[in-house]
């Protein structure tokens, strides 16, 4: 029993001896204790694999370029005229919408566009604090009659509009809209700027692009020639022209001014969070400018110490 105890003492002392932290490079410890990993670089591959990978890369790049060229050629073969890029005041990274233009644009929609087009996803309350005051919006809402109910007797009734009501529809259903417009269905304008390629550039060009058809082009009765519309024949008559209305603030109501204001209004209607999104982006950039140097300092002077620490096992002598 005594002999077994004496033989176990060196082993126990060896197991109880602690590990120590040294400055031995980590790679030297693993190189001596672990087998070498295989080198999988491109230069070490056989010639056949190099040729295969190179051919695959060339074919992939060529296929992507061919697809892009075919797409551009298809766009160039379209029959409609592509709208130019206009310098909108709200198109900048930090630019906000012109709220005076939004107010005028709502006036254009109310007096010109609402006779045929609906905006069923926009409520009167959305105008508060954007283009009108709450009192002004209440007056605008009370101008319409809304069917509500049923009442205590089970009958439907009409009441003046409220802030929570949505913009009224010009037609009760799509069939009535088609009958009133010669078979064409006027689209809803709530998200028309996002739903059309080119956005407000397309809408502006469409509103101001009516002209006489060129020689050899015939447009059937009830349609109007517009080079920006697919097929060049549109069922909507020219909706705006010079002095089509009088703005409340006295701005001259030229055709381009009217089109610009209604396009700005439609941009806001499709993206009410436009200004808030850009403000949040600016705050994020300012916060990142402060946080990135701090994160770099923590990584360089704090985490690098822990990352470079080497732990080596010192075997007993």
UniProtKB/TrEMBL annotation:
Residues 100-207 form the Cytochrome c domain. It is found in: Mitochondrion inner membrane. Its cofactor is heme c. Heme c binds at residues 113, 116-117, 236. One of its GO terms (molecular function) is electron transfer activity. GO terms for biological process: mitochondrial electron transport, ubiquinol to cytochrome c. The keyword Iron applies. GO terms for cellular component: mitochondrial inner membrane. Binds 1 heme c group covalently per subunit. Keywords: Electron transport, Heme, Iron, Membrane, Metal-binding, Mitochondrion, Mitochondrion inner membrane, Respiratory chain, Transmembrane, Transmembrane helix, Transport. Component of the ubiquinol-cytochrome c oxidoreductase (cytochrome b-c1 complex, complex III, CIII), a multisubunit enzyme composed of 11 subunits. The complex is composed of 3 respiratory subunits cytochrome b, cytochrome c1 and Rieske protein UQCRFS1, 2 core protein subunits UQCRC1/QCR1 and UQCRC2/QCR2, and 6 low-molecular weight protein subunits UQCRH/QCR6, UQCRB/QCR7, UQCRQ/QCR8, UQCR10/QCR9, UQCR11/QCR10 and subunit 9, the cleavage product of Rieske protein UQCRFS1. Belongs to the cytochrome c family. This is Cytochrome c1, heme protein, mitochondrial. The gene is CYC1.
């Amino acid at each position: 029993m005594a002999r077994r105890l004496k033989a176990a003492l060196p082993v126990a002392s060896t197991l109880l001896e602690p590990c120590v932290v040294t400055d031995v490079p980590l790679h030297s410890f693993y190189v001596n204790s672990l087998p070498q990993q295989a080198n999988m670089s491109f230069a070490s591959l056989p010639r056949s694999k190099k040729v295969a990978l190179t051919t695959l890369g060339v074919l992939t790049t060529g296929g992507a370029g061919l697809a892009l060229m075919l797409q551009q050629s298809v766009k160039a073969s379209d029959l409609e005229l592509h709208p130019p890029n206009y310098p909108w005041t709200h198109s900048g990274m930090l630019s906000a919408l012109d709220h005076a233009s939004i107010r005028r644009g709502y006036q254009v929609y109310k007096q010109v566009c609402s006779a045929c087009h609906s905006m069923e996803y926009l409520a009167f309350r959305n105008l508060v604090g954007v283009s009108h005051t709450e009192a002004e919006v209440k007056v605008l809402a009370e101008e319409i009659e809304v069917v509500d109910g049923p009442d205590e007797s089970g009958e439907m009734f009409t009441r003046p509009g409220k802030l929570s009501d949505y913009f009224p529809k010009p037609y009760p259903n799509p069939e009535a809209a088609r009958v009133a417009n010669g078979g064409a269905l006027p689209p809803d304008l709530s998200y028309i700027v996002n739903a059309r390629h080119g956005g407000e550039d397309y809408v502006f060009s469409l509103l101001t692009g009516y002209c006489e058809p060129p020689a050899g082009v015939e447009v059937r009765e009830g349609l109007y020639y517009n080079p920006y519309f697919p097929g060049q024949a549109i069922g909507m008559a020219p909706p705006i022209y010079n002095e089509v209305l009088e703005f409340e603030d006295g701005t001259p109501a030229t055709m381009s001014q009217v089109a610009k204001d209604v396009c700005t209004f439609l941009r806001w209607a499709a993206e009410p969070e436009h200004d808030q999104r850009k403000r949040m982006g600016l705050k994020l950039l300012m916060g990142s400018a402060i946080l990135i140097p701090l994160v770099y300092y923590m990584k360089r002077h704090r985490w690098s110490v822990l990352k470079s620490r080497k732990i080596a096992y010192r075997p007993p002598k």
